[in-house]
Design brief:
With 398 residues, the protein is of the alpha/beta class. The chain has ten helices and 16 strands.
């Protein structure tokens, strides 16, 4: 690997910073302590800092040379509403809050690069460091766009990194096209006619209708969707009834739809809308249907992906850069990629062997109460960010 010497030198301090953030997790749009810490560091290094974007978002701008070119580098800052079971020294001090996805590490990696870019200024143009709130379901990227992120801070392209448990430390992966799925939720309320469970002929049983409807919905995936266009429709909640001898008046069905393309999403939503009303009516029931689109699919742009692949090969070595296998998990970096060219890629977080004694003895996977970010990624990610910014903007002409 070819890591930046200054990034390596600053890694111990950035590790301490990362662990401090881990110990003080904050949920989406509540990252006041974290954003203040980020802004303080950036100002100390000479960045022009703007705070309060989409509530708690921070952007640091560093200009050098005379080129009009500009690049955006993004890190997310929010934690998850879950209880950490690790007991090591830097475990969460806030009950029910945990950095279970590594956003503390993403913030530390970008700050590591920020310090070195400010020291060396080996680039010609503008670096925009985007510290984003509320990735975990809050749509912080969407809110930053709505707050005028790209109008206030022009960028030719934007890039994002996520750590990836299970992939070996020092390895990376990237792919062109869809890499994360869209995230969407639906809610169906089947209205029937309640009554005595011993006299079902006097009722319209919404539970029976719901059970049939759950099966029918899967036909959209298996018979309406193009098989090569991956998609998932999962019913995850069914709620009905209060007593064993009562057929309830209604039954609530909720779940999620994930797709890699907006075309597949459009198809699935429309087929659901077409199906549920007549289906329920055939049983003498009626229904309410709601479909909420949350995050669109994360789709990498071809030229920017090729560029990132070259940067990763420069830093990690060609043999340690792999093709990323797309996942139907969602990521709100997708909102940035709808507005600007860019690429979202991953760095291997290892198998969990980095965790010190006191971890929860569970797997080191994302959104797990035993998770912890691998601090060995800080010099790797920091070096990738430095190399990416310098290569994208080029050197100052002499």
């Amino acid at each position: 690997m070819k890591l930046d010497d200054l990034v390596i030198a600053g890694a111990p301090a950035m590790t301490a910073l990362r662990r401090d953030i881990h110990a003080h997790p904050e949920l989406g749009f509540e990252e006041t302590r974290t954003s203040a810490l980020v802004a303080e560091r950036l100002r100390a290094w000479g960045y022009e800092v703007t705070t309060g974007i989409a509530g708690t978002g921070v952007v640091g701008v560093l200009k050098n040379g005379s080129s009009p070119r500009s690049v955006g580098l993004r890190a997310d800052m929010d934690a998850l509403p879950m209880t950490e079971i690790n007991t090591f020294e830097h475990a969460s001090t806030v009950p029910g809050r945990m950095h279970g996805c590594g956003h503390d590490g993403h913030t530390a990696m970008l700050l590591s690069a920020a310090q070195v870019l400010a020291q060396t200024r080996r680039f010609d143009g503008t670096v925009n460091l985007v510290f984003q709130p509320a990735e975990e379901g809050g749509g912080g990227a969407r809110e930053m766009v709505r707050a005028g992120l790209f109008e206030r801070f022009p960028m030719d392209a934007i890039f994002g990194i996520h750590n990836w448990p299970g992939m070996a430390q020092g390895h990376a992966a990237v792919a062109t096209g869809p890499v994360m799925g869209s995230s969407n939720e639906f809610r169906l309320v089947v209205h029937g006619k309640g009554g005595h469970a011993a006299m079902p002929h006097t009722t319209v049983d919404p539970v029976l209708v719901a059970c049939q409807l759950v099966q029918a919905l899967q036909g959209i995936i298996t018979r309406n969707r193009e098989p090569s266009d991956s998609a998932v429709l999962s019913v995850t909640m069914i709620h009905a009834g209060e007593a064993t001898n009562v057929i309830p008046d209604h039954c609530v069905i909720e779940g999620t739809v994930r797709t890699f393309t907006l075309e597949a999403l459009d198809l699935i939503e429309q087929r659901m809308r077409d199906m549920v009303g007549p289906f329920c009516a055939a049983f003498g029931a009626s229904c309410e249907f709601r479909f909420d689109r949350n995050y669109p699919p994360t789709i990498n742009h071809a030229a920017e992906t090729d560029f990132v692949r070259g940067v990763l090969q420069d830093v990690c070595g060609a043999e340690q850069v792999h093709a990323f296998t797309p996942t139907l998990g969602a990521e709100d970096f997708s909102y940035f990629l709808l507005e600007k060219p860019g690429c979202y890629f991953v760095l291997g977080n290892g198998q969990g062997e980095h965790r010190p004694g006191g971890h929860g003895a569970g797997p080191c996977v994302l959104h797990n109460p035993s998770y912890d970010f691998n601090d060995a990624l800080i010099p790797i990610g920091g070096s990738v960010w430095v190399r990416l910014a310098e290569k994208y903007l080029g050197a100052v002409a002499t």
